[in-house]
Structures are given as C-alpha cells and as structure tokens.
Fold this sequence. Notes:
The protein is α/β, with parallel strands linked by helices.
Amino acid sequence: MNEITADSTVSRRTGTIGPSPGPSPGPSIKICLIRPSIVVPRHNITTMFTPPLGLAYVAGTLQDAGYEVDVIDAVGESLDTRHPYDNDCFLYGLSPEQTVERIDAGCTIIGVAAGFSFEWPPCRELVASIRERFPDALLIGGGEHITAMPDQSLSESELDIGVLGEGEETVLALVKSYASGKLDPAAIEGIVYKSKDGTVSTNPRRPRTRQIDAIPWPAWNLLPIEAYLERGYGFGINRGRSMPVMASRGCPYQCTFCSNPQMWTTRWIARDADLLLDELEHYQREYGAENFDFYDLTAIVKKSWIVDFCRKIKQRDLTFTWQLPSGTRSEAIDHEVAQLLFESGCRNLSYSPESGSPAVLKRIKKRITTDAVLASIKSSYRAGLNVKCNIMLGFPGETYKEVRESLGFAMRMAIAGAYDLSIWAFSPYPGSELFDEIYQEGGIKLDNAYYDSLRSYADASMTKSYSEHFSDRNLKIMRIFGLCLFYGTAWFYRPWRPFKILYNLYRGKQESRAEMGIANVLRRNRLGSVAAEQPARQTEHQSAC
C-alpha cells in the first residue's frame, strides 16, 4: 500500500453539502468512490435504478472534512444502457472499462461499494481492472458483502482494506491515517486488511455511532442525481421526482435470514424528526423533490416517533408524498398511525411477514403474529394506503403443510386489502444466521454458481429450494401458484383493480408495485429493441459507404 504525507484538518458539520471552510488536507490526497454497474437477470421483474444512498453518505462525510472526493455512479451515469453478462444477465450502466477510464489519474485512494452478494463477481472483476491501472493506489471496499465475508473478500480480490458495517466514521479515520503518512491498519477499528505477505487480518468492530444526527448529509452534488430525478427512478413507486432518505438505522430484531445483525447490529436509532424534515425541505428547494423513498430497514419501531414525525409534517404545512418500500413492522401501525401516515403524505408501504406458518415464524425468529399483521393491513387499507406484502418460501425444513399455511395467509392478506404481493425464494445471504448454518453443514460452496443462485429472490426462473421436502421445480410452481391465488383473491373482492392498473399504465402513472414491475419489463424490452437495432444500423451504414 502506498503511503503519503499530507496535513489533515477535520471539521464535521451537521447537514452540510459543500466542503468545510478552512485549511484543506492537501492536494496530494484525492479520493474516488465508485458504485459499480448492477447485475440484472434477463427475466427479473423488480429492477430498480436507485441512487446509492450509502455511498453518498460516505462521500458527504469526506467532503465535509475537507477532502477532495470524486464519485463515479456507474449506474446513474448511464441509466439507459446495458451490457451482456454471464448466465443470461445484463450489466446496467457504464461498462467496467468505461468506469475505470473515468477514474482521475491522480487518485490515491479508490473505494468500491460491494452491496448485494450476487453482484460480487463483477465487482471483484472491476477491482482487478482498477488495480491494473492504479497499481499504487489504496483500494478500499465496503458494503453488505464485505461486512458479511471480510476474509474471503480480501483474499480473493485486489482490495487492500475492507470497511465493516456503518462506514462513515471508519472511512474518515482510515483516510486521516493515510493522509498522515503513517497508516497503521492494525490501529483502525472496523476494518479488515491485507498485509504485504497476503495475510488477511480483521480488527474489532467500531461501535455504532450514537450521534446519528451529526452525520453530514449525503453529497448528492457529487452524483448524477438529476438523471434519477428526471426519470422518476427510486426505491419506491414512481410518484415524481424521488429523493432517497433514511430516518433511522439498524433493526432491533434478529431474523435468521437477514444480515442486519452483522451489518448494522440490533440497535435501532431514529433521527430527530425536525432535523430530518429540514433535510427534506432542502431537497424540495434544491432538487424540486416531490416524493421521498425511505431506505430504512425498519422505519416504524416506536409509535411515539412516527406519530411525532407525521404531526410535524402537518404542522409545517409540507406537501410531498413519501413511501416505506423496504418493508416495516406492523406492531406500531394501528388505525391512528395509519390515518396519520396518509394525512402526512405517505402513500405506499410494505409489510414483510415472510411466512403464514406459526412454526416457520418461530424458527426464523420473526416475532409477529399473523392476526396482528392482518389487523394492521386492514387499518392501512382503510386509511387509503397502498399496501404490498412479502412472503418467503423454501426455508430449510419447510414442509408442504407450512407452505399451504403461507399461501392461505396470502389470501387472507388479499382480503384484508393488500394490493400487491411478492413471493421470494429463500436465499442464504452471507452474514445471516441461516447462511452460517447451511455453510457449516456443507450446503454452500462459495463459487460463482452460488452467487448466481442468490438472484433467485426476484427471478422465478432461477428458483432454488433449500428445503429438503421439495425440489427447485416444485418451489417455482408454488411461487407462481401463490401469486395467482393472491391476485385472484384480491381482484375477486375488488374487481376494479386490474382495470385501474391498465389505466395507470396507459397514462404513465404508478400507484402500486405491480404497475412498477410491468413498467420495468416494458422499459427493458424497449432497451433490448434499441440494442438489437444498433448492429443493423451499423451494417446498413457500412453497406451505404
């Protein structure tokens, strides 16, 4: 690893966008943060082109400290292009070659975000290309996959250092140490690092920050945010110019299929409602934001917090829509909360009960009851909220009887008013308790085929069963059958819904996840048609010449 010396002056301000005034750490430190292109299976319905909020937070922290930072969002800089990739998949965004070409030749620190584990193989290839062009740069990786698989991530890639868990304070400490010319990886909490002899060492984790409101705002000025805004792209339904925000961090629960306990720990921290609304108002003024997508793992944990937040939106007389697309708990959403959500502008939310079988819920440590979920769905539906639910099938040990219980529960959710349902195939994601169990039993081989299998969460054609009681094919059939049951039930009780979907698609609007999914498929088909036409046009041009 290259070591250089520069004076470092750190100044942290809450909610700032530009660099801090005062001395700069020096021109010899130049940082580039990269969000790689995303891998999308050909038949994936849920493709989402989302601004990289985590990377923007890290960039904001470094910029606030006075460092010179570039950000390359390979997706946002080329949203309308795709490139063929292995196993009937595409890379959306810049090609790896284009991404490397955009890195400033003077960069001394290059960070690469490694999010979902199924994207690790192309991310690893990108890191290798970066190393070839920048042999002396400090290469840093961070994100869910690095945190879940720290030793392997470094041993099989060209990365020098991996950042574990919440990244802002750790990255800042790492950059400060590097800039001092006396980088000592062993002294920095929250990293995994590779010695010159190739040995990989993991340091103790850095404690989660308790001052969540002191974290500088995301540096959207460094990213192509307008490309997302003008297309209405985001994590949620397209309801206009949508900005990503985070109201809380962490999740207090310990579901066995989730990597949250390792990535974020089980400490849930919410932001101050007024300071959060200050940020939202800024985005309305600066970017013309009309909608906000909340990226929280579990936004609604404390009823008192969400009630306070909703009431303050009304007190400030703010006008925007907002959504909870990632799934939230049902315990705090009763009739009162549902009404406040709608009155404050919330239009879409997702529930993630995961199963309708009491035995499965107990095994996966999902501390809910199906009756409580149904009551909350009814309250949300009556308040006017568009509700989507998530079910997961194929858990280890799951039986046909338990699947029937889940599918019956899906029908009950449809009757209660849920508008959409996703039936995922369980995938053992690195960092989760179930992954550790299956891996230790020899049920997982960490190769590219395993990473490919993780894409089955949204692509039914790649469904893989981890239950010994039914095959991959039978799980795929049950997923499709379950969706037919849900939508058949929902449309029987509310027969106007399919016609409303068609009407919204006709007028180019979205109100539900079903409409979003269909719009994504249509868009990808158009991209495919354009890509197919280009070689023909080139041939015609050559013939004319």
